[in-house]
Amino acid sequence: MLMTLVSPEGSAISFPSCVAQLYSFHFLGSTECFLYTVMSYDRFLAISYPLRYASMMSGRTCAILATVTWLSGSLHSAVQTTLTFRLPFCGPNQIQHYICDAPPILKLACADTSTVEMVIFVSIGVVASGCFLLIVLSYVSIVHSILKIRTSEGRWRAFQTCASHCTVVLCFFVPCVFIYLRPGSKEAMDRIVAVFYTVMTPLLNPLVYTLRNKEVKKALLKLKDKVVHFQSE
What we know:
By secondary structure, the chain is an all-alpha fold. It has a single domain (14-232), classed as Up-down Bundle (Rhopdopsin 7-helix transmembrane proteins), CATH 1.20.1070. The chain contains nine helices and no strands.
């Protein structure tokens, strides 16, 4: 995207680079999806079993979950990339998109892509819906545990623990469902949504995750005071 933006006429990407870009895009995206699911399980343990959390979420357990997450993302991306680029390409070599993604690339194939599109649709659908269902089940249990907390302060602290995760989950899943799991395709709208979940969401992640950090809050307050002092002068 940066190469395209800085070049007035755009810049071409080689076929191997397009393959690598598609694999990396789906690898990181699916890994993030699995990671959000693991994080919801982590929040469930922290709120439902606070006294046993340290033993249940040990360093070894974290390492296993992280390894499974990355391996699953790698396997899922390999399937998407292999299915997409085994098709013959003999016509135009330009896609109406900012990055090499499966839907616009499939439109360039010189063969029937209905079977491949269905397999990719089902594969992404199973991963996205499965992860989202597990996240929802975790939060149902979390809400049940929060309602058992007697003090309002305790319930508010438990809610704050999950607020950042809920925010990034919504920012991640809504655009993915819009792009990959809806009938039909509008190229202009797809490009706008693609900018959101490839650029805006990652930029928001550091802000969302650090809002509860006391040092970050102090730094923001200091910055605000400096700005107000500068404007008063």
